[in-house]
Design goal:
360 residues, alpha+beta, name from scop, 2 domains, five-stranded mixed sheet, 13 helices, 6% strand, disordered N terminus, cilium
Length: 360
Amino acid sequence: MPDDAGERTIEPTQHRRQKAREEGHVARSSDLVSALVLLAGTGALLVSGRALVETVVGLTERHLGGEAWLTTDVNTASAMFLEVTQEIGQALAPLLLAVVIAAVVGHFIQFGFLFLPQKAAPDLTRIDPLKGFGRIFSLANIVRLLFGIFKILVVGAVAAVYLASKVDSIFLLGALLPGEIASFLAELLVWTTLRLGIALLILAILDFGFQYWKREQDLKMTPQELREELKNLEGDPQIAARRKVVQRQLMLNRVNQAVPKADVVVTNPTELAVALKYDPETMAAPVVVAKGAGLVAQRIRKLAEEHGVPIIEKKPLAQALYRTVEVNQPIPEDLYAAVAEVLAYVYHLKGKKVPPPRAA
């Protein structure tokens, strides 16, 4: 049986998932981030590449073209350095911003925001030669190696197919001017990279799917692990049982004190019992002083009989009071009429007159 064999057949609980997340055990693929960064960078070059080239050409013409210049003035050299840095920074800003956003998004869509400062702490087990050797030749690394080889083959095939479609244009480069050759090669490089990025993205999505599946398998629990987790979350069964006994005793003590002072007990007739008390001088409305079901209801009925508290069988009223009113709380206005009828009957039996409940 799975229980005896210790097989992991039970889906992980929310607590186990949360604990694994806090330890950094999440589904992630570094290839997905790399593919998004590559696509974002390539897209940014398509949009702002011309402006970047024009900036570099302009800087080259201004500082390396024309007459040579030399200066020993530190202020002049610093000003020129700052000018060049600012121009290059502005030209590279779209590219760098796209890459940073892609990297952040790539991590966030996989596992959201995750802050693990403990991972930065030194861990000597990471440099253990035996464990390192075991990790190198583990099944997971062998699978990753095979997937890496497959990825290289796919990327190579995509690049080869696209370059093969451009063979005729490549052979005609000798007839073009240097500027045209540079433009063609740049365009060829960008579109090749874009296709490679799309292929890598598809492979990365497959890799992430595998990592997610593997994580789910790793988090599955044996019946024994599930029992241990429930025991740790709920506490020792003996302590829990003792806590229930104490809670029941406290409730019975409250019932023992409240029921003898009640004016009436409304029943359902045996499953539920609700004890009511009403003092027109101090209470705005009748108050539920005790209520219970099952054995507690039987205890309330017995106490009421022992102390001469009237017991009235009103099934709908008993259900409404038990369901909507907590102990030591006044009844709601929509039950005033029904409770007033019961109290009027009880007071009639005692030869008294009860005023109608007044608003709080």
